[in-house]
Predict the 3D structure of the following.
Amino acid sequence: MIKNIVFALCGCLLSLSVFAQTTSIESILKQVEQNNQELKALSEYMDSKRLELKSGNNLPDPQLGAYYLPFGDHSTADYTEFQISQSFEFPTVYSARGSLIDKQSAQLELDYQTKRQDILTQAKVHCLNLIYLNKRLNTETLRVEQARQVFEQAQKLYEKEQIGILELNKAKVAWMQEQFKVRQIENDVKNTLLQLTNLNGGTEIDFTSEEYSASLVLAGKDSIWQEKQAQDPELMQLKQQEAIAQQSLNLAKSKSLPNLTAGYNSQGVAGERFSGIYAGISIPLWSNRNKVKAAQSQLGYQQTFTSSRTLQAYAFFEKQYNDYQIMLSKFQEYETTLSGLNSDELLLQAYQLGELSFLEYYMELQFYRQAYDAMLNMQYQLHISQNQLLKHQL
């Protein structure tokens, strides 16, 4: 009964640990999104571009004109005329252009989301790198301690004249090499934190996790691709550019309708005054020539381009997915094989008992350590690949 309770508590603690890790990475990404200077600058630029697009659908300025004709031979008073008018395109043009501006604004938002996704992907890569470095730091710290024990054992054997100075020196060099690896990893951690701080707008981030939270098992390929098409801003941009081309064609067709002018006119001489409504029409016989054909060609190009780029994106995604599955299978084999070996301790015991020379001990140890390091690196590369495959979820 007590044993079951202990297992249950361990399971709860493990779940809480995983949850905390997930929250930690998500909170870092939220900080980066809020503090990143490049995203702030881009947001302000996008606001200015949206206002600039909206200004393109304004009415032209009203026109005010007046005539005063005092010269010449005439028996009546001087002639005067006053006119105010407003020109505008056919009303459907403003509606079509307004729809085009909305689509262009949506395109700007997708541009922003693409940049945001790239920056958050970089930030997550740094977090994953820190987890990997912390794992290596723990491993190398333990190896330093083991190398120290080996050196002390070799020193005792040397004092007893059971080994020579060369073997003692080898043990000392091996200990020094492990210490250097620890210092190198600690430096890599500092540099990675600096890069993360830079993405966070200069605000320091503390991230000391040693465990990955995400499962390495992915959903089905078709499921991820459908999700990617619906959420990935780079793929959504292709569809949006096609929609913009379609609306540009609608606008070009609307511009085939005449432009209009309306206003008020007053003219006459003293004692006689005529006033009333002024109206005019501008027939676009030449100004819209070939513009509809050009818009149709642009739409055809965009549709073909979208189809081509989507096929390329799927081919690249499929390769990424297949490569990931192969690496995952290899990693699982490594993990299963190495999980229960306990090679470091067994080799150390054999050396301390005199069953192995230092050279034999060191060579055997390096073989297993290289295999373990390869497994750690493979695990890290899998999480990096997964981050790329699922970047549309950020």
Remarks:
- Residues 1-23 have pLDDT under 50 and may be disordered.
